[in-house]
User: Fold these one by one.
Assistant:
Number 1:
Amino acid sequence: MRIPSLIACGVLAAACLPASAQSMKPGLWEIHNKMQGGEMDAAMAQMQQQMAQMSPAERKQMEAMMGKQGVRMAPSGGAMAVQVCMTKEMVERNDPPMQDGCKVTRNQRSGNTHKFAFACSNPPSSGEGQVSYQGPEAYTSRMTVKSTTGGKTDTTTMEGSGKWLKADCGSVKPMQAPKK
């Protein structure tokens, strides 16, 4: 798995999580995901090794490129931090930001627990998860994603947490709704 594929997987995971919204605050959210299982462990280790072997200038350039997409690697443990902009309209519509080729197949909320499922065509993948909210500014989550590459099915588990940073998203743009 190449670095851009790993980043895309992390961004997709992050995009699926803040879907509940009735009590979430609009604005800039930081989401931390730790991915485990299948090829993801090896891909994260490879990415960290590649980053460690870069010159300081190359590493700074890579971090800047990732930062423009709202993505940064956490300092330890193979975790990834992603910043996501949730607009007031997204929060009010209970509309999860999804990339093209993905759709929500289940979206249920009861109390402070949100259960969801999704399916994507490119790359072929599906998943389900649960988010537990600790008020309008924080949550924890667990998600399982199944993907198929070269005829081989891979299962990845993601544990995450999200926290609201501020009302102004700054340079982080909200994800657009997929084209119908």
Number 2:
Amino acid sequence: MAKPISCIIVDDEVIAREIIASHLSQIDNIVVAAQCKNAIEAFNFISNNTVDLVFLDINMPEISGIAFAKSINKDIKIVFTTAYRDYAVEGFDLQAVDYLLKPIAFERLLKAVNRFFDVNNDSKNTNTKVIDPNDFIFVRSNRRMLKVDFSDILYVESYSDYIKIHLENETIVTRETISAIEAKLPKTKFIRIHRSYVICLSKIQSFTNEEVTVNRKALPISRSYKKEVLKHLEKF
């Protein structure tokens, strides 16, 4: 078995770190060695540990991701993560493996990890490709991390500062934004139909121009999502 890739996540936003960590937990041969809230924490960790790959936010207080990237060993590969497109050119000038825009979807992060294997020609893992991801995520509920299989999800509903994940036989409530959970779900299996709803495509029982029915419950398609949703559904 190939040696696991040791990576760290550097971002001053907790939720951003958790989304990336959740995505990476679904990928074989990747180990999240640390999550750091700033460049100083990251530099201290790298100084005392072996790190192969850094998922690095650019816009951070005190020391920016760009400045941090310039200060570390060039053998450590960088995947920049940011909400701002304006940094892309400078990021690639530093020979970054990839540049991910937030919110980061799982499929996009998976592509970045595979690109790491492609460009890391001196690694023992040169010919390694990421094995297909697991079909689940972990969510926090009642102080526990619960495993949720994608195949069990009917739909996700936004509820004030929480979301409800409706499953076949239960509903899980977690403190999360619907945009954050949407980014964790594979776009080949789920679609956003409303600011308050993300649905599993395979669980749709029927649909019209105004709503979809999942588990005998009619869910509205909002105007802002209608064009994309109907374009997708009409392929069935």
Number 3:
Amino acid sequence: MLSKQELIEEVLLLPIEDRTYIIDSLIQSMNPIDSDIDRKWLEVSKKRLNELKSGEVKGVPGDEVFSKIWKRFEK
């Protein structure tokens, strides 16, 4: 049996697609899919998209968001 470090070294030799598949599988094993939560997130995302499309809300550019975050952590 491989040690944890040996396993990591072996995985790092794989193509990116295979590593991505392994990462996704590990994350799902720690955070199983909950279809009820997924359905609720889908409802929220559709509502927010409709609000953007209708002009009810305005989007904030990513650069502005990250700038505010960095300023908050500089304090």
